[in-house]
Amino acid sequence: MTPNLWWTEEQTPALRLGLRCSEILERRRSAYQEIAVYQTEQYGRLLALDDLVMTTEADEFVYHEMLAHPALTACAHPRRVLVVGGGDGGCVREVCRHPEVEAVVLAELDGEVIDVCRRHLPALAGALDDPRVQLRVGDGVAHLAAAAPESFDVILVDAPDPLGPAEGLFGAAFYASAARALAPGGVLAAQTESPFLHGALISRVQAELRRHFPDVRLYWAVIPTYPGAMWTFSLAGRAPLAAAPRAARLATRYWSAEVQRAAFALPPFLAALVEAGG
Ligand code: SPD
Hints:
α5 packs across α6 (about 170-180), α6 (about 170-180) packs parallel to α7 and α7 packs across α9 (about 270-275). Strands 8-7-6-9-10-12-11 form a seven-stranded mixed β-sheet, with helices on both faces. Strands 1-2-3-4-5 form a five-stranded antiparallel β-sheet. By secondary structure, it is α/β, with parallel strands linked by helices. The protein is globular and about 55 Å long. The protein has helices at about 60-75, 90-95, 110-120, 120-125, 140-145, 170-180, 200-210, 255-265, 270-275; strands at about 5-10, 15-30, 35-40, 45-50, 50-55, 80-85, 105-110, 135, 150-160, 180-190, 215-220, 230-235. Spermidine binds next to β5 and α2.
């Protein structure tokens, strides 16, 4: 144990998140990034990529449940699911809770993220052993561009922050590929960052999605270790989305049908970001 070991994320040049750690469980450089897992005293194990929090044991359920279940319950027949990013397995775990799902493809850029999470975050990465899951290690943008038309019912974009290779996961070409790869009743959900730090990105993504999808919404959840704590997701349907989600009985800790309804109620400053995209 290293005394007084602090992990810090520089969220902006003027804002940091600090968590005291008892141990660095792993720290290594892959071809793409530095991958690290810390044992924090407050929030359990923390996975960081290039010194940015990807997930912690304490709040991962909020993010993964809220990324997966709104899209899966908005889709009438979610049989074939693509998860882009999310090599930790948390999003795949939530997808696998739905018995209607027959196949889940995980397209993760960095195979070493999967290896590290299998070792240190088994409550998330254990889902990758579900027989319905197929792992595809490689660029998610290229994977989607090469996907057959209408080959997925649900696409979930579990992107890291929009820096470096992940920028493409927030880009116009990626959303065009996603619309093409979704079946007629298909639904996409994507994490779209913090309204406090990335308002312009939210406006741009919402506008871009509206170019390809007839029904686009924004919703939010509270994730304490992400910058600003208030986090947004974008939902887009290839057809107008039903007023009520499909009923689903899921063993969840944050998501429920009622929470989902509430998550789409936007405070005026969030509604303004949606409208600002034009
Ligand atoms: N700033 C944190 C953004 C991270 C979003 N993706 C996290 C991946 C967890 N599966």
